[in-house]
């Protein structure tokens, strides 16, 4: 982690530093495209329906607010209750790691500022690890 965020950027939210809606949409779409195409994520992919249109939109809306942008998910659905929403799925370390593989790869492809990348990697790991229920 050692990279420091430029002081001029410290006033920005991670959502703004990422690039707003357009870049967040690319991140989410690439995440799901990777999940569907990478054989190493078969367990994770099997937890999702064939049509990922709705879940892509929900992740986009959730991440928007989670990253400090518009609270789209909360406005539509209320509190995310992430852990409760994931209880029907067997989320173990393997599923967590598959999710992180897709997210980290999608982030790598965006060529993010290193300090933002480190911050997001840590935040995504903590959140994904919290989802484990097995």
Question: What does the secondary structure layout of this molecule look like, with pairings?
Answer:
Elements: H1 14-18, H2 20-37, H3 42-46, H4 53-66, H5 72-77, H6 82-86, H7 93-110, H8 114-130
CATH architecture: Orthogonal Bundle
Class from secondary-structure proportions? mainly alpha
Distance between the termini: 29 Å
The CATH C-level class name: Mainly Alpha
Helix residue percentage: 55-70%
Element order, helices and strands? HHHHHHHH
Number of domain units: 1
The percent range for strand residues is under 5%
Question: In total, how many beta strands?
Answer: 0
Key phrases:
Globin-like_sf, 8 helices, 66% helix, mainly alpha, 134 residues
Structural description of this entry:
- The chain has eight helices and no strands.
- With 134 residues, the chain is mainly α.
- The protein has one domain: Globins (Globin-like).
- Helix 2 packs across helix 4 and helix 2 packs across helix 7.
- The longest helix is centred in the first third of the chain and has 18 residues.
- The chain is globular and about 40 Å long.
- Belongs to the truncated hemoglobin family. Group II subfamily.
- GO terms for molecular function: heme binding; metal ion binding; oxygen binding; oxygen carrier activity.
- Keywords: Heme, Iron, Metal-binding, Transport.
- It comes from Amantichitinum ursilacus.
- Its cofactor is heme.
